[in-house]
Amino acid sequence: MLMAQDPNSLIDSVKAIPEYVWILLGVLIAGVLPWIGIYLQLRHDSRERQKERNMSLRRDVYMSLAEKIGQLLFHLSNFYQVDIPSPDEYTEVMTQIDVIGNKETIRAANEFNDQLSIALYELIPEKHEKDSLMEELNDFVKKDVVDKAKSIAHVKMLGEEIIKRTRDLAKKCQQKSKLCHEAWISVIVAMRKELDASSFDKDAYLRMKEISETKCDENLETYLNSMRRINYEKPLQKIEGAVDDL
Fold it and tell me: CA separation (Å) from 145 to 131, 139, 154, 155, 235?
């Protein structure tokens, strides 16, 4: 064994190594060491570039999703008067998240999608019923007036029912929109964590949404007054024959 050898014999063996061998060994070490550093630096740079490419891909997909979600949430809160846009592009981006997102982001995105689907399943039939009443009122007004009193009563009945259903639907739209916004916060937090972005102020976001909801209430009353004037009072004026008769 090495430890059992005579130390003096080991020293003699080392001394016996020719000088040119030590020179070659020094040259070899001097030549290899810089390349090791270059190799490690190149490997580090490659990993950083790959990380940046992945980050850039996530950033593009997540920003696209945020844009689509913003549109959907806006339309959801105003669904009583507008139509939800086509979900095709939104679905496409959600599919991309399943590919590039981490477990937390995918889970949060799926929970948001479930909340949005539940909202639409409940709201769409009610909006359809409200729109059907609007069509019935418009069709009725186009008909010739046979019995003035019955026609006025029917228009009033349809008009009041449309106003009531619109107000109820608007309130429900705001409730569903609030639930979806709360679910969306979890998606934002997960995505920002993946992108190494700064922390998200959930409380400030919710305060902002409360202000927005107050404005929505004001807009609702403005919209209902417009509906009453255009789709309710004007048909009555037509039936009665003059504005002064109201």
Answer: 23, 12, 11, 12, 11
